[in-house]
What does this fold into?
Amino acid sequence: MKSLLAILFAGISYLSSAQNIAVTSTNLFEGEPYLAIDPSNPQIITAAWMSVQLGQEVVIKTSVSQDGGLTWSTPTYFPHAQAGYSSADESMGYDANGNLYIAYIDYDNDNFLSGSVVVRKSTDNGLNWGPAYEAINITDCPNKLCIDRPWIAVDNSSGPNSGAVYVTATNANQPTLVSAPYHPYFAASSDGGVTFTDARELDTIGYLAGSSIPQPMPSPVVAANGTFMACYPSYETSQSVFAQMLLATSTTAGIDLDHSAQYQSMMAGVSDQYAKKAGHLMADPVNPNRLGYVFLSEQNGDADVFYTETTDLANWSTPIRVNDDPVGNDRLQDQVWGKINESGDVAICWRDRRNASSSGYQTETETYCAVRFKDSTSFETNFAVSSVQSPHNAILEGAGNDFICVEFIGDTVYTLWGDVRTGTINIYLNKSNINTGTTSTFEVTKENPLLSVYPNPASETVKIKHFEEFSDIQLINGNGEILKEISNPTFSVEELASGTYWILFKVANKQFSTPIIIK
It folds into this structure.
């Protein structure tokens, strides 16, 4: 749901890649993963993601590891507020007392007539969750649908607003329902996420997002001293002839907001219509005056990853290129995320195409990361955290799989991402130690396949189990060409050459796929 910045910015080489083990392993959509790590005990890891649940629309699921990723709890999911609702866009954050919060959308995704961003709290690291409290309602912003791409930021400092919960959001990408001008939005809670201030526009006169960026998605953080900060893109020529990143800050738990121009540039934007372009703001957990920002730019002719930072909240450094593949090699990078650890080191991860067979978005991908140590002026050698190259799938061109998530605790970079190596989006976790060079992966959960075919492998006929629960079923080859429309639970494959094929199908109006081998 969340394409962004189309106009705005329109040595670790010894790390080896272990075999990735899926956080989720299903033949259904598992998208938009998010990761939270207990700040007092990095062995406790909570993962959250979007998933299809039979008999429902898309839901949010969570699972918890209490042993650093070795074993995981049975996934649980959140029920919808109303029948027919769907959920998306989850994010999590801890407060100073060890409470874990999650925010997500629960809404009518067919007609956009109702819905909200809700927040839940867990006192046991996500094993159990409290009730859903409303942070932003779709009616708070008539004709703007301001519940898209919510992010949560929680004050875990010891300052006067400790425990404050902030939720930001933006306009939905529904051009027939939403018209300019566009705005970022936010709401704040001072009572542990139970009640929130009325949702309001995050931008203001002189610091407007403008009418050129349909989804000016904010990226929020809470600084080490408890100051709330959120950056958002702007292109408004009455304010500046340049595209800008603007910064809103509050020291009063969202009651008052100050604004400044974070950064402006003539760097080229990202033109590919499918690229996931959102930048990401990160706060130094120790230095309240230091922020980092990672974003994409086609300055060199193809989308590269760039990083800039400030140590005084006023002057931003000249952006430096993070990915170290050859400059101008016509290979697009996208889907960036970053984090600063307590030592001041920076970790950046993204979806990489340096080894792809062709240019553009619609080609093979891997997940890469890079680290810059605090006192260095450059990033160390890039390293892959994905163990295989993932083929492209048309499912990546729509909503979902729009971001990866990175945590950086001590000397370990935790990376959570989704790719389509199995034929649909599943989620993978990697842990990489930046000092020892060791890397490891862990399985969170395995669930039963949503669509099953038998026999598989097959040579004559194939039968689809629970055929009546699926729609728009098609058989395609490895090039994505539709070979046949499937209208009966049993169909022939005698005419097919040996190889791997895919069955496309829909559940809850979302398209998924499952592999079938013909022998």
User: Anything to note?
Assistant: The longest strand covers residues 86-94.
